[in-house]
Amino acid sequence: MRISSNTIYETGTNLMLQQQDSLIKTQQQLSTGRRVLTPSDDPISATQALNISQSISLNKQYSVNRTTADLSLKLEENVLKKVTSLLQDVHESAVRAGTASFSNADRITVATEMRSQLESLVGLANATDEKGQFLFSGYQANTKPFSQTGLNVQYQGDQGQRLSQVSFSRQLAVSDPGTDIFERIKNGNGVFATAAHPLNAGTGVVDAGSVVNPGSLTGNSYEISFSIVAGVTTYDVINTTTSTTVSSGNSYSNSSSTINFDGIQFNIKGDPVNGDKFTVSPSTNKSIFQTVSNLISALEKPAAGQPDGTRFANVLSSTLQDISNSLENVLTKQSAIGSRLQEIDALESVGSDQEIQFEGLLSNLQDVDFAKSISDLQRQQLYLQAAQQSYVKISSLSLFNYI
């Protein structure tokens, strides 16, 4: 078989170029630390590595979202702690205002303090984050949630709850609408609310009452009407929702003043006079601001002597219950925020573990085996040197060298 000199040259050159290409590729792998430099190096591994890289990017973004959510929730939690402290101060002021020795002037002084506390409460409800967005306005982050005119406070936001994607399958609430915290608070004992008629002239004071038989609850409204005949005090219970009499001529005495009917009970202390009335109605939502405003209005009215003293005592009794309900509601929201913060910590721990797993999988797919690559580099250098030396010898073979 005859082989031309041109073929010898081309073959030798191609072989050297192939060895150089292999050598350069190995050098690139060692310098970058990556085994898969282009998809053609290992199509299957390249595809898997791309998917894992995307998962790593998403996991990092979820971590950023969790950090932002954590900051938002901690800010809200701090504001609610201040609200709790302020409500406790209001409750303390209300108890102080009920002191028997207090004069009308003393109660007006307390009312002045409470006006300042009400403004502080509205200020906390209008708190903003580091971006200047309002915490409690729902989706309307740029809308001031509460506006105040005198003792009247109105909500301007919506009912939205902002969510953040904190993991592949979990969206977490990072805000609460102001209505849930400051307005949707059941009055009375949470099931029903008792109240004295504003025109009562006796000394009867009603408490918040309780449910003794949930199965007998009707959800209706009632009126307890007192009458005194020949020195004997009795009362009638009328269902004002159905306009029917539940019972009539019930005896009443200060020593045993518990009133029971339709699964509920409550106490009336003192001496109601003929015609005095008390009402029982299903609990409704009452805002914190309305509770404080009503108490301020009551404090600014004369409450010395009778019947003003008893009327104030009834307002104070129901207000203290409503303040307690408001405190309980805020504490419940704080507890919910604490649960969300715990969930963020748990998700962050899971995310960190996933990142380690993803990085390990990605390393197995595309990172270079340094020991093997160094060995390959040395072997390829040897091959290239052999090819170069053999090329020199073969290319010098010519008859002209022997003529």
Account of the 3D structure:
The strands form 4 sheets. A 5-stranded antiparallel β-sheet has the order 5-13-8-9-10. Strands 6, 7, 11 and 12 form a 4-stranded antiparallel β-sheet that branches. A two-stranded antiparallel ribbon has the order 1-2. It has helices spanning 5-32, 43-97, 104-125, 178-183, 288-299, 308-366, 370-395, and strands at residues 146-149, 152-155, 163-167, 170-173, 192-196, 205-206, 210-211, 222-229, 232-239, 244-251, 258-261, 264-269, 277-282. It is an alpha+beta fold and 403 residues long. Helix 1 (5-32) runs antiparallel to helix 7 (370-395), helix 2 (43-97) packs antiparallel against helix 6 (308-366) and helix 5 runs antiparallel to helix 6. Helix content is 52%, strand content 16%. It folds into 2 domains: 34-186 and 293-367, f41 fragment of flagellin, N-terminal domain (Up-down Bundle); 192-284, no CATH class. The protein is built from 7 helices and 13 strands. The radius of gyration is 41 Å and the shape is rod-shaped.
